[in-house]
Description:
This protein is mostly helical. Helices cover 68% and strands 0% of the residues. It has 20 helices and no strands. 35% of the residues are buried.
Amino acid sequence: xxxxxxxxxxxxxxxxxxxxxxxxxxxxxxxxxxxxxxxxxxxxxxxxxxxxxxxxxxxxxxxxxxxxxxxxxxxxxxxxxxxxxxxxxxxxxxxxxxxxxxxxxxxxxxxxxxxxxxxxxxxxxxxxxxxxxxxxxxxxxxxxxxxxxxxxxxxxxxxxxxxxxxxxxxxxxxxxxxxxxxxxxxxxxxxxxxxxxxxxxxxxxxxxxxxxxxxxxxxxxxxxxxxxxxxxxxxxxxxxxxxxxxxxxxxxxxxxxxxxxxxxxxxxxxxxxxxxxxxxxxxxxxxxxxxxxxxxxxxxxxxxxxxxxxxxxxxxxxxxxxxxxxxxxxxxxxxxxxxxxxxxxxxxxxxxxxxxxxxxxxxxxxxxx
Length: 369
């Protein structure tokens, strides 16, 4: 009888092993949706590609901004995006203390990771904001994330995930564009219907000026091993559509990854617009353009290099490494009068800038240089 028991246990273990192996094989096999995404890549976004063909630069600089200057959060969140935590802390703490729930989320973001005490305060504030109905604060308390492991600790739980998802659905029903996407997006391991549905969601979000879902999709599409010239051009066109609507991350991606797919004229227009919108990488691009000719003695390039260095210093509110380099390096043999003239140009440029906010609660990484 004991042999029979061992035999049955052995068979059960063998069956469990077979099921486990089959499950691993199944999970590694691409779903129908994944196959379609690989096969079509960016070409699957037919409606958005059609819009891209006729897209022109949008004169509304806030066309893709989820937080605009009429929102009390604008100054604080913009400061956080710029790396000015001193201003962000001052602006957002006042709003949070006055009971602004969304400000509580962003104020917590300014404190997270600064030091142990600040991280504890941030965790408490995420909890408070979640309790008061902010879905993104609740989702920040998702167990297993790097923030939970490093800073938020025991406060993270699946209960917060459930509450966050419920809060997202409630906001989606009220027409919130971010919530509509994240409350409804389906798993990539799905059917053709799921694939088509997700494209429709991304398109809907883009049509409402929210391009972050499209950027997420593009980041996955770029990993496709079958990315040929036609598919790469389609990605560049989608990015151009977002960039024409003043979405700064799309401009950045075009700058550094798709320069061969866009014209020199388009590149220069994007760079100028990105600088006006406050994109630091536009300044970096100008540094790269002016550095070599400036070092070679080109006077105009030296003036241009100093202008961009001074612009970054003033815009960021701190002495940047490149400005220290510009001030201290002997290749910039500029006179006092020349520097004063450059200062006037910088002051005028800054006064005409219209910086936009492109980070959001689920994508704060774009503001961390």
